[in-house]
Amino acid sequence: MSGPLTFPGRLRPATARRTRRVRRRVLAATALAGVITAGLLLWRVGTVSVSAFPGFPDPALRSLRSLEGTPVVLLSLREARRLAAVWPGVASVEARLELPGRLAVTVHRAAIAGCVPTGRGWHAVGNDGALGLRLRRPVPPVLQGFAPDPDALREGLAVARRVTEESGRSVVSVRRILPGDLEIELADDAKGTVVVHVRPEPSGAERWWMARLEEGRAPGTWADLRRDDRLTVGGAG
Length: 237
What we know:
- 32% of the residues lie in helices and 30% in strands.
- It contains 5 helices and 12 strands.
- Strands 7-8-9-10-11-12 form a 6-stranded mixed sheet, covered by helices on one side.
- The longest helix has 29 residues, at 14-42.
- The termini are far apart.
- The model has no long low-confidence stretch (mean pLDDT 87).
């Protein structure tokens, strides 16, 4: 008798049976993964909700809302944050995905430390000297005559803070006339407006006169305080 030998199922090698079981499981897992992937691709961002400060640019809002319809599996929260963070005046951005398909974005405004005049309006200046959003009204101190770069604007803000700390008065504006001549306008309840000229670094005259102003005994309403050994005072007071 000739021909291939066959064995009953119970006598077949165990390795072959295990191989078929593994193959069936792999095929089932692959099919399940395909179903899950297809389902995820159908799950899309239905709504983009943006909570932002007044003046947040419309183009930025449109770029965020363009994420509507994006498959959730392809959505990058980092990219959503970047779309808002690149705009001037933005300090930080939060983005989170909420069920069933809502992307919630919260945009926080950077602190406004002052402003610069631009044409018929003003632009905010942050503590780091960066230009921010356009403003409807000025926010003191108004920085005038400074180059529109962070280093120059930080210098103006630093002088304004120094004079405020020395005098206890609010600085309305800082105008750069020359590299060593900054005109400061201060608001004073008793004198009204006080104008002084200072250097980027404090002088002896500045320290003395500002201390008198804080005490309410400063002479005049105008003063040149750029020298260490003398000062020039004008105006009544």
